[in-house]
Write the structure tokens for this entry.
Amino acid sequence: MNNIPKIKVGIVAVSRDCFPESLSVNRRKALVKAYAERYDAADIYECPVCIVESEVHMKQALADIEAAGCNALCVYLGNFGPEISETMLAQQFKGPKMFVAAAEENVGVLSDDRGDAYCGMLNASYNLKLRGVTAYIPEYPVGDADACADMIHDFLPIARALVGLSELKIFSFGPRPLNFLACNAPIYQLYQLGVEIEENSELDLFESFNAHAGDERIPSVVADMAKELGKGNQKPEILSKLAQYELTLLDWIENHKGSKKYFAIAGKCWPAFQTQFGFVPCYVNSRLTGRGIPVSCEVDIYGALSEFIGTCVSEDAVTLLDINNTVPKDLFNADVAGKFPYTLQETFMGFHCGNTCSSKLSACAMKYQKIMARSLPVEVTNGTLEGDIVPGDITFFRLQSTADSKLRAYIANGEVLPVATRSFGSIGVFAIPQMGRFYRHVLIEKGFPHHGAVAFGHHGKALFEVFKYLGVPVGEIGYNQPEGVRYPTENPWG
């Protein structure tokens, strides 16, 4: 993944002046040692200049971690801590921050070396709220060195997403296709998140594409595509145009990224795209997404945003799928019932035309877009990457702005079942516990569109914290409630 930030967490220990400073010094050293033994020591930086007891120390520590290139902060309460200077540090640090606190090591410390950080965390959280400072505080933020090391490691995917969003530019091309108002994208919330958007006409893109005709780099990209597709290279005649389009997008990013470091694309793919460009862009979209540059279909701006968040959190390729169709009963009875712990209503098929990268397909082949070919010549619908999605754990999620510019999200951990779909496109048989109720009382009730981002692996925990940190009200983060826990809109009589 070459389009996501690398996080370096500055660990700053704090101490209240009526407690032994040595507590914070020794506990910080133990924390850093524990992290280095369990994870990559390059993830963290131990601030050595001082233990923060005052506003003067706070300024010294802030200057030190900024000079060290830290883009995330961990305020570590080695003892009770100074609620003013420690929260001022969080307030003045520009990147994401977290607070953790030291547990008492053993009975021997209870007489003279008790730290009382358990109490200090309460004061820290209260002062953060007084200052209007957002910080990540783990579910249980007090622990020994090993536990706090784990908490910092859990913070990394959250911090990656937050830093990435602060340096993200989304490029969109063209208006949404007719009848796709469900993917409406009020851009107000993008600016509140620190995301820049560059909205372009598809005519601008077409002009740039034509200017890339005969580009000397096309043959090498074609060769790379052919190597990736292998036996699935069923449309070799279209590869040169697809390579031309890929170079067009990459050059557009390079020439238009401006002050931003990271990018995503919300692209147009129909109805005029096929007849004018002469292909569909699905395969190119899949290749860029596989490199960590998400490309959403149908100018789905918040779909691209969601994909980027998933890429940062998972450090892996993501995809964007329609929550598309039910699993037929005969398929379910033959391949799912009795083999997996799901009911028919807990399964569905996630599908898109061909935008899922090859590494996330069990096998792939370049084909034509069957739905579009019903009304267009087949030759202008070539360019999809078809195949069943690899089985395994997934997270289905989306961050969305409503029509009145309020942020809303959902998250559901589930899996792709090892079941042949017998269908077309990039597609899989998905299973999410209590999906039927989630579909009705979150997706339908809250007005989410049919597109959902898919991260590979279970990342619900980190995504939930990212959305909270971004200011999505907790009540507006939907998830699949377990059986017996009723949704507010759910009929109590079933």
Remarks:
- Residues 9-165 form a domain with the Rossmann fold fold (CATH 3.40.50.10940).
